[in-house]
Design goal:
Length: 176
Amino acid sequence: MAGARKPVVEVRRSQRRRRTVSAYRDGERVVVLIPDQFSRAEESEWVDRMLARLAAREGRLARSDAELLARATRLIKIYLTEHGTQAVPTSVRWVTNQNGRWGSCTPADGTIRISHRVRDMPDWVIDYVLMHELAHLIVPSHNARFWALVARYPKTERARGYLEGVAAASGTPLTD
């Protein structure tokens, strides 16, 4: 990618570390912590892996409201096209005040809000949460017609399972 610079990397070896590798950003520098017994080849491999992980994590954190709206627009074109403007939200945004739900929709004004807790999840989970809320613009309740619309998204069951697992692991009872 033109203009992209590889960050300055500081590798810290530890005799106490046996198997784990971790990395974090310290200003403009990335610090990678590895076991002392790693070879130079293993060090190089792990530095590359950890830089990729940091970049992926930072890319997810940079997700904006505009990107969320673009995702919703793409989902409408693929799965809800025949519903016309009824399926088009007036706004889609990330919010930090939803700890008991993944998202919410107000069909009366067409607004969709997605919990910031979803922001770090895989794209296919974000798409499911958006699809769920977009379906509420057409069918406000959780009846059979609503679930038929949601089920058009091919990873619905997988995403629901993922979200159930996250909720169980965090001990947070969540509503649909």
